[in-house]
Design brief:
Number of domains: 1
CATH topology: Rossmann fold
CATH superfamily: Thiamin diphosphate (ThDP)-binding fold, Pyr/PP domains
Distance between the termini: 43 Å
Order of helices and strands: HHEHHEHEHEEEHHEHEHHH
Structural class: alpha/beta
Strand order of the largest sheet: 2-1-3-4-8-7
CATH architecture: 3-Layer(aba) Sandwich
Shape: globular
Strand content: 5-15%
CATH class: Alpha Beta
Length: 322
């Protein structure tokens, strides 16, 4: 937690072993799903670009675990982790990646636009920053309805450079909206580091709009992120006002695609190894081996479902278009 941020009133809850294993399973499931995507992608069966969350699964699972079923979740094109953490159907996800009719968006969304009304994951978008106002719109509706629901919007630190982010901070603070901004700071916007892009400090920027700012330095720390995010989410829900949580994290793969790009000169293998050295999905092989067989079986069934599903007919092209 940031030193300058007043502590959230409630004390952090302890993470018992049962809950830890449940979170571990969910994070591992996301990783193995994406490892399957890495395997499949060169075959061209997947009909859209993919942005992998490998290395960034932990904090998403830990935070989403505290959301109610009808809390709205918004995210960017790096959306696999959010979709699965929120309870998205794996068969429908693979069918969507394959461009099949049985996908949750009938094959029209692909990887970068995962959306599922059943799980209230709304509008993943390939346009940087566009999900911020969408999250605020739902938060405003929730406030007017007084239903106790919140919006959570997950985006990278690069999106904080967009003008719409500043406008949404202002509007969320002015209207006192129940929204949590989760900023995944992996230090990179494609290949550009923070020092090349940002002349501001996020904590100072958020503070200028009188929004509580929180930071966690290790997104792979399931226990810490789980307990801290519970405090923050409870505070947003009870106060009906916005907050922002910045989580330091690290993506293992290239920005878009399934390759490793450590030979490109903009980041180092040493940095990669530092993050892997504290990654529970790497370190705890006992739990990995315990859960892997069931996860792989589920993935195989989802892939089989996708491959046996039908492609959309031509007349489907202009349906659901507004």
């Amino acid at each position: 937690m940031s030193e300058s941020q007043p502590p959230v009133e409630k004390e952090a809850s302890a993470l018992d072993e049962t809950t830890y294993q449940r979170l571990f399973f969910k994070a591992l499931r996301i990783r193995i799903v994406e490892e399957k995507i890495v395997q499949l992608y060169p075959s061209d069966k997947i009909q859209s670009p993919v942005h992998l969350s490998i290395g960034q699964e932990h904090h998403v699972v830990a935070l989403v675990d505290h959301l109610k079923r009808d809390d709205a979740l918004f995210c960017s094109y790096r959306s696999h982790a959010a979709y699965l953490a929120k309870g998205g159907d794996l068969k429908e996800m693979f069918a969507e990646l394959y461009g099949k009719q049985s996908g949750m968006s009938k094959g029209k969304a692909g990887s970068m636009h995962l959306c599922s009304a059943k799980t209230t994951l709304f509008g993943a978008s390939a346009i940087v920053g566009t999900v911020f106002p969408h999250a605020l719109g739902v938060a405003y509706a929730n406030k007017l309805r007084r239903n106790g629901l919140i919006s959570v919007v997950i985006s990278g630190e690069g999106a904080t450079e967009e003008g719409v982010f500043h406008e949404c901070l202002n509007f969320a603070s002015l209207k006192k909206l129940p929204v949590l901004f989760l900023i995944e700071n992996n230090g990179l916007a494609i290949h550009a580091g923070l020092q090349e892009r940002q002349a501001y400090e996020l904590e100072v920027l958020v503070g200028a709009y009188h929004i509580p700012y929180h930071r966690w330095e290790d997104g792979s720390d399931l226990e810490a992120v789980w307990s801290r995010s519970q405090q923050i989410i409870d505070s947003v829900r009870e106060s009906g006002t916005p907050a922002l949580l910045e989580v330091k994290t690290y993506r293992y793969y290239e920005h878009v695609g399934v390759g490793l790009d450590y030979d490109q000169g903009y980041r180092s293998l040493e940095e990669y190894e530092q993050w892997r050295s504290k990654d529970p999905l790497v370190l705890n092989q006992e739990l990995v081996q315990k859960f892997r067989p069931d996860i792989e079986k589920e993935i195989d069934q989802a892939v089989e479902f996708a491959e046996s599903s039908h492609t959309p007919p031509e007349e489907e092209l202009f349906t659901d278009v507004y």
